[in-house]
Give the backbone structure.
Amino acid sequence: MSHDPWLWIGAFLTISIFSFLYKDNPVYKFAEHLFVGVANGYYIALYWHNSLKPNLFEPLSAGQFIYFVPFLLGLLYFTRFIPRISWLVRIPIGFMIGWGAGVSIPATFQAHILKQLEGTIVTPESFVNPITGIWALIIILGVICTIIYFFFSKEHKGIFGFGSRVGIIFIMIGFGASFGYTVMARVSLLIGRIQFLFGPWLGLIK
Amino acid sequence: MRWFELISRIDRRIIYLLLTIFVILPFFIPLKISQNIMYQTKKLFDFIEDIQPNDKAVIISIDYTPQTQPECHPMALALLKHCFRRHIPVLGVSFDPQGPGLAVEAFAMVANEINREATNHQDSIIYGEDYVYLGWKSGRIAAIIQMGESIKDVFPRDYFRNLIDSFPLTQRIRNYKDVAIAIIVAGAAYSDEWVMYAQPRYGIRVGAGVTAVMAPEYYPYLQVGQFSGMLSGMKGAAEYEKLIFDHGYTKVPGKAGTGMDSQSMVHLLIIVFILLGNIGYFFTRRKR
């Protein structure tokens, strides 16, 4: 069993959080509130030492007065708390939306639409290996049928309805895979904590 | 209460208890279930195998948090072991505020493990020569784009506040032209930004280590070649651990591998519960 007091604190907090599985209790509440407080303190210190100080206040104190522009823009966010001049918050928000849209629209088209469309195109090379050929056909069938399912401007009847029903099958397989992976992820977190409790803390496993 | 009503209303606390037992048991009675290596894991492993030693660097972006540590930390450790053993320089970065603590621990753990066995300077892993941890940066989209022009402009100092020009490694590795691949080990969608902003503009190869929850979303990236490999959750980490163990890059099996027995047991238990729940529901509905 460990003699490190930090491991004991970690073990106590882990067990406190797990105690919620039985029912809500003051020990759980304590651990939860402690986590929120510690997380806030951590973020404030991190942003100060790694962002605000080196990227804003140090250049300003070194005479680089151009940094007053982002500083001022940042300060304008706080005008939300002063109703008389709260409209000024639109300036930094507009700046961020303009920059964000300009940067992300072409990148999203390229990476998430055009490149993904490339993946659905069946070419003669797809059939060099019969297995990859079959998968290429399944992918294009899945894409078309799933899009049909989400096309609501035409009634899902006849061949259109058939495509839509096939689309549901693909969607359900997707949901099933997501559910399976989610179970795996959550169980992994439990395994991690059990490894901590039985390993470094209790010393029962390596 | 009929049997089918009973199995439909199992107290959740009994389920939690059974889950815990099924997780704990394999640690004391190992089942040694063999791991099949999925192609996306092998692809990433092969990519790193093909990088020339002491040439281009690998960027490892450590963007996971303590919450996703059991899945992502073994990935980071296995990747670092692989790179260090092959003498591939590593640049560490973080764009998640909770990343730095875990990153520093991961780098130190792997470097110490290798240095304990090292007999000369060449076998050792030296900070500044073999790896540099650049630390955390806010505004990650701008940072990822700017690093393609100059890493020094984004990170003039490393995490420990040293000037990065003072290190031989970062004097040589200036931008993405000197980087073979960026591997993003993350518990959230950080790899998207590398694929969206860094890859089309600078042609950098991207690999990913993602949590199991995120994995299904990223298979399309793998299929079209936007990812040069992917580790999916604890299973991906266990597979990578097995690959580096089988190739002699480490003598000790990793933590993810030992957790996979528990994973398999719990999956079996969950399948049983799903079947019981459906049988109970079916008979209850028929009775009505």
Residues 158-201 of chain A form the longest helix (44 residues). The radius of gyration of chain A is 27 Å. The mean pLDDT of chain A is 92. The interface with chain B takes residues 21-22, 42-43, 46-47, 50-51, 54-55, 103-104, 107-108, 110-112, 115-116, 118-119, 139, 174, 177-178, 181-185, 187-195, 198, 204-205 of chain A (CB under 8 Å).
